[in-house]
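Extended Data, panel c. Modelled sequence:
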Amino acid sequence: MDTDMTDKQILTELKELRQRIAELEAAGLLPEKAESHPIESDYFRMLVENAHDLILVLNADGTMRYVSPAAKRLTGYDTEELKSKNPFEFVHPDDLPGIVERFSVGLETPGHTEHVEYRSKRKDGTWFIAEAIATNLLDNPTIQGIVINIRDITAFRRIEDDLRKSEERYRYLVENLNDVVFTIDTQGTLLYISPAIERVTKYKTGDLVGQPFMRFIHPDDLPGLLESFQRTLNGVIEPYEFRVIDKDGGLLYVQTSSRPFEESGQPAGLIGIMTEMTERKNADEARRRSEESFRAMIRKNIHYYRGT
């Protein structure tokens, strides 16, 4: 019953609202509906002519029907000057076969979009790396052409290439250090360990990455190491010595030096260097025992001579 009353109330209110709107329209108090802008209107023309990308409209035979004003900035050619050119003559010879092939494929499929990169020639003879997105709108009665957006991504690719080279140099450095480079997350899971680990232990990198570092530590050294781990996460930089259990059960003495790293402004773990020092520790221990033995011998001789 309550539901029926609610529906009736809604229908009554809608009827009253429609009547009120009609009265306002008749009195000229509501704005008329805006007419849609045609594709050649000032509105869309301003959008296209002020776009940062170069916009081309090609006919099916590849001739240029429209060239946006960005042509001058991007290529050095005026729009009318560029319109009279064959668009494929600006493509680097090594890139041309692939571009022509993809253009031909795109012609066969209405609505098809191709995303390509190639080297394009400016008016002054220099080259830039172009990123182009072409859409086949030949069957669109308004456009009847192939719309291409072109942008210069030379600087972006140069930065990308510099970054790649930098990463390669860093990787070469890390992988050829005598010491082991590692990263671990805040839970103690090994995220990365450099190939040097295979020179100082019997482990392979694949045996360790994704594993908690705690499982490889001598039980007697683990409590102190965990405390040092937490202190380092909190920003206290300190070297720490402990024993690692090798794959064959042997013990290795190591020293680590780590510092925290962040991701998105939050602590994400530690990055550090581990130095294997078993031989040095064994030599120190042998020297200590030798010194103790020598001191014991001296004391024995002193007692002997005093007794004599």
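The longest helix spans residues 278-307. This feature is highlighted in the accompanying rendering.
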